[in-house]
Write a structure and sequence with these properties.
This protein is an alpha+beta fold. The chain contains 13 helices and 25 strands.
Length: 500
Amino acid sequence: MNSPQFTAEPSPSPSDADPYPHPVPYDVIIAGCGPTGAMLAAELRLHDVRVLVLEKETEPAPFVRIVGLHIRSLELMAMRGLLDRVVEHGRRRPAAGFFAGISKPAPEGLDSAHAYLLGIPHPVIVRLLEEHAIQLGAQVRHGCAVAAFEQDDEGVTVDLVDGEQLRARYLVGCDGGRSAVRKLLGVGFPGEPSRTETLMGEMEVGAPPEEIAAKVTEIGETNKRFWLRPFGGGAYSVVVPAAGVGDRSEPPTLQDFKQQLRAIAGTDFGVHSPRWLSRFGDATRLAERYRVGRVLLAGDAAHIHPPTGGQGLNLGVQDAFNLGWKLAAQIRGWAPETLLDTYQAERHPVAEDVLDNTRAQMELHSTEPGPQALRRLLTELMDIDEVNRRLIEKITAIGIRYDFGDGPDLLGRRLRDIDIDVAQGHLYGLLHHGRGLLLDRTAHLTVGGWSDRVDHLADPTAALDVPCLLLRPDGHVAWIGDDQQDLNDHLSRWFGKPAK
């Protein structure tokens, strides 16, 4: 084969392709600058969308909670050239032991070049993603919260708590589980309230490390919501079940921790000098709709669930990745009529699956005899590679397949970060700009009038067992084949009408 040829055109500037004759200060206002909001802002900026992010908090949270980036989220970071920057602030861990804390090794040969968990402080990943969005041109304002909004045929008028009024074409609520945007929009949030709560904090202890380790090992055999782990600097991360469901607006006290430690472990380990104290529940809810007109929801504003399996942050970031290019296409004027509707059609079922698997995991955390028996049975079944692999792929989101119609199993799935060739490097290096990509092993196809939205790599040396495939900007396979007319039909389906 000849050397690969890669063709790409820069995205048009707003002045070149803005389809709206009546200027509006912002194309999109995003409420909330957590990981979901910051990632969405960055994705929109890749397409020159004018973005303003409003964050109600003026300072980062006073506590440092470690979160885990799963395989699919790491892949998304790699797609946008962020992975090296993120990895240097985290700690790699094996991609195992996620499902209900059942300790099993990761199955061999997971279909990813990034098959590990990255533990990283929550404030750090928020800062990195916010800096990324700002570097791309997003505006971020802290200390600003949405008080009300009204939408019409051309945009959304947003009133802030301080009385300021803003105008945008779209509003996206990424403002957490208690989302003001969702409540003002009137979207139902059905599900179950918290039945149990867990206390979490960081504090110093007076007991010897060996005594703590022995007790944690003993209790951890049956109680997966209990641990004390060294955090550094003489402090321990302490997690213990709460006595009941309290008012989450009020943080727990050190006395609450001592009481529960004594009740469960028979000692409070001499805990003292807390750095921060918090609580979380197991409420499980899913928004009935992700979009009403020009207002959309993403992240915890659209779904909440227990943290078991560590899927929450990842689910929100992946929402943003799915929504960003579609909303940008709508604003740039080339989106097919139903493209924005596919955001809910694709992501709502994914959230339903996450809610179901966290419900199952919470049952397996119970210390009652029935759930403990089921846990022992599942632990045995997970020795079967296919069972273990299925659960890992579910938790890490690499098993997702969107419904794009009939076709090979790869259709609708994400493509791993494969090697292209020496000159082009890895596949994900070609996706940094958030555009579609045609991998053309025949070297006879063309993206034609879609070249302003889709890049073309002719004659790649990648080890693919299909002649050609079309990737969406989020890395999911949108088409497989070798016929130009069939390709054109699918380019129209995902990327609208060709440019004249």
